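During data preparation, a discrete fold description was generated, as reproduced here:
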Amino acid sequence: MSTCVINPQRNQGEPLLAPAGILAVNPSDTAAFHNLAKRYDLRRTFLFNSELYAGAEFFLAGPAVGAPMAVLCLEKLIALGATRIILYGWCGSLVPSLSVGDLFVPTECLSEEGTSSHYPYSAHLVVDASLSLDLCKALSLQGHQPKQGPIWTTDAVYRETRDKVHRYGAQGVMAVDMEYAALRAVATFRSVRLAAVFMVSDTLYQQEWTPKFQQKTFRAASKNLLGQLCALLQSSELGTI
């Protein structure tokens, strides 16, 4: 295997992270970071163009939109000590059984982004079924009913054609996002644990695209879920997995 020119590393003065934490990729959710940091005594530190708050029990990082930026952040988090990462983001629905506001936990991924192919094991991605199951159980105890299934990851938001939406939906792919498959490739390559939960923000299978992520009620629900995930890590519901 050829040696890489640049490798992720923990530099002098950078924190050693708690093993467990959240990578929240959506910029609007980072508005909640400051209050969550105060609530859980998390200290802000450097993470490229994102934010990183480190605490004794868990860390909180983001935003990181798109596969390249998300992978850049994840690689750094791993170099700082992260070994159990919960990805939180939004996804679009490809099928009627997945509605706006539903929670979705991927069980498989279809990659159409350009980052994961640079990792040797990208063609043999294995979802962390145990961590995903524990995440579903923890969310269920919070009153949620997360749905599970395959997800399609793409960089090209403006090339999510109706043909692909209908074809992938007919094949059983339930949702689409911009980061998961690439992060799954990194987690496989670096031998760390990663599971994801998405909130459905829009539907693509209908004749008219119906985005809901601009609504205040949706964004409030998203920030509330992020707070619940932090509470689960603080209480060790997810932090000891």
